[in-house]
Amino acid sequence: MTHSIVTLPGDGIGPEILASATRVLDAVGSFSYDERPFGGASIDLHGTPLTDDTIAACRSADAVLLAAVGGPKWDSTDADAPRPEQGLLALRKALGLYANLRPVRPLPALYDASPLKRAVIEGTDLLVVRELTGGIYFGEKTRTATTASDLCVYSVEEIERIARIAFRAARARVTSIDKMNVLETGRLWREVVARVHAQEFPNVELEHQLVDSAAMKLVAAPRHFDVVLADNMFGDILSDEAAMLTGSLGLLPSASLGETGPGLFEPVHGSAPDIAGRGIANPLAMILSAALMLRHGLSLEAEAAALESAVDRALAGGLRTADLGGSATTAEATEAVLKELAA
């Protein structure tokens, strides 16, 4: 069976790392690719970061694989200027992708690449579950000459559905993040998560933590966490913090899922325009995002596990790109993974 994938190379290093991911995917299965401009590249071509045609293509695909968007070329303080990141928010909304999953598992071969001591991160294996289509990122925005505001709104239904994703994913514990001592949305978040826990998942441990406390504990005792459940903004911040436990954003994949339809799979890192076109970008997060696509988007568990194992073995064998303190190029990293797959 051939699976249809919409590919969105985006900006900066995006086209380079996406090419690596499709090469690796072709080694484990049969896929057809429909490449579409997205983000800044789409702004340059069409004046908008996301066209209706691209949305329609994504909706009809089996999955969507996105590389990276953004760059200084499109940065502007003009509220009316199109920005690449608007395309990402709009695509999540159009596909109903309300749950973002970001696994964080420092690899033994790279323990010494982490800014934290080996004794602190050893054995860490956590998952950040971030609500993706509500909260302050999507609330009404106002701007005058002297003030600006961003409205943070959450409904009971939005909190219930993301809480269920977190509890189903947990091995033992869900740590729910809020700021209930200050924010009304935080108080609603805590109440709803507690109710879903009590009524539907009583056998999973639930703890509540304020976001500032959780941010400190992530670097002091990361092994404590199993599943971290957070709203859109807190989840965005904490998942990037957790990603650095591995020593590099170049190793972290993510999956964005909804109730039905295709999922969106992308690396956590940005478009790195400073190294674009030089052939030195780390493609491993993109490749691992493809593995999440295989698992969560296409139900190809064996292929996903094989790809992840190949990345682990390549790193254990000494593969190091520049962000990991080595000199391997994008092409060399890709070949190292392909070699392990073949073996």
Output the CATH class name of the largest domain: Alpha Beta
- Rg over C-alpha atoms, rounded to the nearest angstrom: 20 Å
Separate helix tally:
12
Low-confidence stretches: none
Biggest sheet statistics? 10 strands, mixed
Overall form = globular
How many strands appear in the DSSP assignment? Answer: 12
* Number of structural units classed as domains: 2
Mean pLDDT value: 94
**Can you tell me the CATH superfamily of the largest domain?**
Isopropylmalate Dehydrogenase
CATH architecture grouping of the largest domain:
3-Layer(aba) Sandwich
Strand numbers in spatial order across the main sheet: 2-1-3-12-11-4-5-10-8-9
β-strand percent reads 15-25%
How far is the first residue's CA from the last residue's CA?
Answer: 24 Å
CATH topology annotation of the largest domain: Isopropylmalate Dehydrogenase
Based on secondary structure, the structural category is alpha/beta
Oligomer: single chain
Order of helices and strands: EHEHHEHEHEEEHEHEHEHEEHHH
Summarize the structure.
With 343 residues, this protein is of the alpha/beta class.
Description:
The protein is an alpha/beta fold and 343 residues long. It has 2 domains: 1-99 and 252-343, Isopropylmalate Dehydrogenase; 115-246, Isopropylmalate Dehydrogenase (3-Layer(aba) Sandwich), CATH 3.40.718. Helices cover 41% and strands 18% of the residues. It has 12 helices and 12 strands. A 10-stranded mixed sheet has the order 2-1-3-12-11-4-5-10-8-9, sandwiched between helices. A two-stranded antiparallel sheet has the order 6-7. Strand 1, helix 1 (14-26) and strand 2 form a beta-alpha-beta unit. Helix 8 runs parallel beside helix 9 (232-243) and helix 10 runs antiparallel to helix 11 (301-316). The longest helix is centred in the middle third of the chain and has 17 residues, at 184-200. The radius of gyration is 20 Å and the shape is globular. It starts with a strand and ends with a helix. The model has no long low-confidence stretch (mean pLDDT 94).
